[in-house]
Amino acid sequence: MMTRQERALWAAVIILAAGVLFMGSLVVIRGLEPAAAVHESEEEQGSHEAVASFDGQIITEDEWVKELKRTHGHEMLVQMLNQKAVDAESKVLQIRITPEEFTEKVKADAAGYGSENAYYQAMSAQLGLSHEDVRAEAIYQLTLEKIAIAMVLISDEEVDRYIKQHKDEFEPKKKYELAWIKLKNRKEANNTLDRLGQGEDFGKLAEELSLDEYTRMEGGKLGVVEEDDPFVPGALLDAAKELEAGDIAGPIQLKDDGYAVMQVIDIERPEQPGMDKIHASVRKHLALNEAIPLTQLEAGLREKYGAKLIMKPTS
Questions:
Q1: What is the pLDDT of residues 213-228, one digit of tens each?
Q2: Which of 58, 141, 149, 300 is the right S-S partner for 287, CB 3.0 to 4.6 Å?
Q3: Half-sphere exposure of 300 (CA within 13 A, CB side)
Q4: Bond prior to 34 in cis (omega within 30° of 0)
Q5: CA distance 222 to 202
Q6: Are 267 and 174 spatial neighbours (Cβ–Cβ below 8 Å)?
C-alpha cells in the first residue's frame, strides 16, 4: 500500500500519463500519415483558433500546443514509446492483466480516499482523469511489473523466510475514517464540544474554526487512515482506538501544540488475507527487489524495439 507521499508523487505521474494518452489518440487518428508530412502540415498550417484570453490578448491553439511541446513534449514522446514497447513485449511474453489484479491495484491506490468511488472522483476533480485514464495507467504499471519479474525466480523457502521475519506486515490493520478540528487551546476545544453537543454540524464548525489549512475547507476530513499511519497525529489514533463509529472525542492534546476535537466517521476492520494471497504478494515483492529498475527496463525495451525520437528540439 502506498503512503500519502507516494500517492502525491503518483499524482504527478498520472497527470503526465493523461497527456500521453491524449497525444496517443492524436497519433491513432492520423493513422499512417508519414511523420515528416505531419510535421510539415503543423508547421505550415498551425491553428489560430483561440483557446484562452487575458486582458484582451488571445492565446491560440498553436501557441498552446507549442508551449506543451516545449515543456512536456520530450517526456510525452518517451512515454508513448514506452507504451508501445511494453505492449509489444507483453505480446511476446503472453502477459495479460486479470480483472482481479486490476481490482486489487485500484483498491490499494484508493486507500485513504474513503472508497473507490471517492478515489475516482478525486482523480477527476483534481487531475481531470476519467475512469479509463486511471484504468490505462494501472494496467500499464501492472504489465511493466510483470515483464520485469518474468525471468526472476523466487523460491518457496525465500517467501517463507520473509513472511516469518516480517509477521507484523501481514496482520490486518484497522482503518479509521476521521475528521478533526484543530484548535489553539483547551478552552476553545471545550467550547467547540459544547456547540457540537447543541447540534451544530461538525464539518461546518471545522470550516469555521480549524487551524489546519489542509483539511479545514474539507470539513476537517482526514480521510481513511490506518491505525499506525505516521502522517496522522498519534494522539488522534490513540483516541480513535477507544471509540466507535459516530463518536466525537476531545479535547485531545496534540504533541506539537494545540488541541483537537475528533470525529470517528467510520471504522473498517479488514479480514485476514489468505495465505495464498500473502505468498503471491511476497513473491512479487521479492522479485521486484531483484529485478532491474522499471525506468531502466523501459529504456531497454525502447532499444530492443528500435524506438527513436525524431522530434526537433523546441526552445
A1: 889 999 999 888 888 8
A2: 149
A3: 11
A4: no
A5: 13
A6: yes
